Amino acid sequence: MNITLITVGKLKEKYLKQAIDEYSKRLSRYCKLEIIELNDEKTPDNASEKEEQLIKEKEGKQILSKIKENAFVIAMDLGGKNLTSEEFSKFIEQNGVMGNSNIVFLIGGSLGLSDEVKKRANYKLCFSKMTFPHQLFRVMLLEQIYRGFRIMKNEPYHK
């Protein structure tokens, strides 16, 4: 299975890079992982709604240019479905069984994902109604993907 994370914004914090490296290493036993970092657009402090929309659209075009046609796309979105870790594991497994072996997770910029990107998504997933820093959320997503594979393989993992 191929898992790709397409994220808007560069990771700067060393401790988060170390966590991502650790989960990437752990995941290498279960899947081929690729992380694509895209440049985020600078948002002025008092940006209008229209300016914010334009920024999301620009970032959205970048995201869409990186998605392969045969990919099963999961957008991280506050309006998406909440799953338990067990349900998430089963979801990944079922997609693999159904031939969706190229799964792409999308993490938008600070303003979220454009409507065009959301339309391209095959599924919208929400971890929480809370807001998290996008860089930290990468670690959280990789941890849940790793946990999902451990559950799938009936390997021990802290509950």
Automatic annotation (TrEMBL):
<comment type="similarity">
    <text>Belongs to the RNA methyltransferase RlmH family.</text>
</comment>
<feature type="binding site">
    <location>
        <begin position="127"/>
        <end position="132"/>
    </location>
    <ligand>
        <name>S-adenosyl-L-methionine</name>
    </ligand>
</feature>
<protein>
    <recommendedName>
        <fullName>Ribosomal RNA large subunit methyltransferase H</fullName>
        <ecNumber>2.1.1.177</ecNumber>
    </recommendedName>
</protein>
<keyword id="KW-0489">Methyltransferase</keyword>
<keyword id="KW-0963">Cytoplasm</keyword>
<dbReference type="Pfam" id="PF02590">
    <property type="entry name" value="SPOUT_MTase"/>
</dbReference>
<dbReference type="GO" id="GO:0070038">
    <property type="term" value="F:rRNA (pseudouridine-N3-)-methyltransferase activity"/>
</dbReference>
<comment type="function">
    <text>Specifically methylates the pseudouridine at position 1915 (m3Psi1915) in 23S rRNA.</text>
</comment>
<keyword id="KW-0808">Transferase</keyword>
<keyword id="KW-0698">rRNA processing</keyword>
<dbReference type="InterPro" id="IPR029028">
    <property type="entry name" value="Alpha/beta_knot_MTases"/>
</dbReference>
<dbReference type="InterPro" id="IPR003742">
    <property type="entry name" value="RlmH-like"/>
</dbReference>
<keyword id="KW-0949">S-adenosyl-L-methionine</keyword>
<dbReference type="InterPro" id="IPR029026">
    <property type="entry name" value="tRNA_m1G_MTases_N"/>
</dbReference>
<feature type="binding site">
    <location>
        <position position="108"/>
    </location>
    <ligand>
        <name>S-adenosyl-L-methionine</name>
    </ligand>
</feature>
<comment type="subunit">
    <text>Homodimer.</text>
</comment>
<dbReference type="GO" id="GO:0005737">
    <property type="term" value="C:cytoplasm"/>
</dbReference>
